[in-house]
Design goal:
With about 230 residues, the chain is mainly α. The protein has one domain (about 1-225). Helix content is about 75%, strand content about 0%. The chain contains 11 helices and no strands. The radius of gyration is 19 Å and the shape is globular.
Length: about 230
């Protein structure tokens, strides 16, 4: 989004492309991130912790999951988060392992969504070439952007920073006293994270990693259409 804001200020931007991009971000915020959090909740419940269900998080209703700051970050940077699902580690049979599985569920859900969207993108791209319909091209852009943002969310959420999923993965590696000490500074960490994204110090390496994942997903999902010519 910051790239588009720069283009707008310079007078060099494509209105339709911008509309498609913003629409794909809204789609991710209201559809993809709820699935991300639902995946956390579902795995937690399956592993023995009923807290997500009791807190109303075992749902795909976006209003139960959207975090205003996290959604704003998605619109501004393409990276962000939703409201973390509350879980009680002590309710798991194997606390550290199960917490790691719950933490991974969200990013894995995003990667799976990105895979599906990249497949649709390649299908529409193939169809547009053979049919010559410009609307198919615009639709393909929508799913391409949706795949990119989902990949961004997966990569971003694996950072070992609260309240991101990577911080929960850290519980499987760090002693509890160190983890809770880090959590005390969550608000300040998030401010620092926002600054790092805004300046590009963090968003640049994250984008490089996301692009590698997107390239891999694209290479895999375009195989069927390459085979049929």
């Amino acid at each position: 989004m910051l790239r588009y804001l720069s283009d707008i200020l310079s007078g060099d931007f494509d209105v339709i492309d911008l509309i498609i991009y913003v629409s794909s971000m809204a789609f991710v915020v209201f559809c993809a991130t709820p699935l991300h959090e639902f995946a956390h909740a579902l795995i937690a419940v399956k592993l023995g912790d009923d807290t997500p269900r009791l807190r109303g998080r075992l749902t795909i209703n976006p209003m139960a999951h959207i975090d205003k700051r996290g959604a704003l970050m998605i619109f501004l940077f393409g990276f962000g988060y939703a409201k973390p699902v509350e879980v009680r580690m002590r309710k798991f049979k194997k606390p550290k392992r199960d917490m790691a599985l719950v933490a991974l569920a969200g990013p894995v859900c995003n990667v799976l969504q990105a895979f599906v969207f990249m497949f649709i993108y390649n299908a529409l791209k193939y169809a547009s070439v053979n049919v010559g319909n410009v609307m198919l091209v615009y639709m393909s852009f929508f799913f391409y952007y949706a795949a990119i943002i989902n990949t961004n969310l997966a990569v971003f959420n694996l950072l070992p920073i609260p309240p991101l999923d990577g911080s929960r993965l850290a519980t499987a590696l760090l002693p509890a006293k160190y983890y809770y000490k880090i959590m005390q500074y969550e608000r300040y960490i998030m401010i620092g994270l926002f600054v790092l994204l805004f300046t590009g110090i963090l968003s640049t390496p994250l984008s490089i990693l996301s692009n590698l994942v997107i390239s891999l997903l694209n290479s895999v999902t375009e195989i069927p259409f390459t085979m049929i010519g």
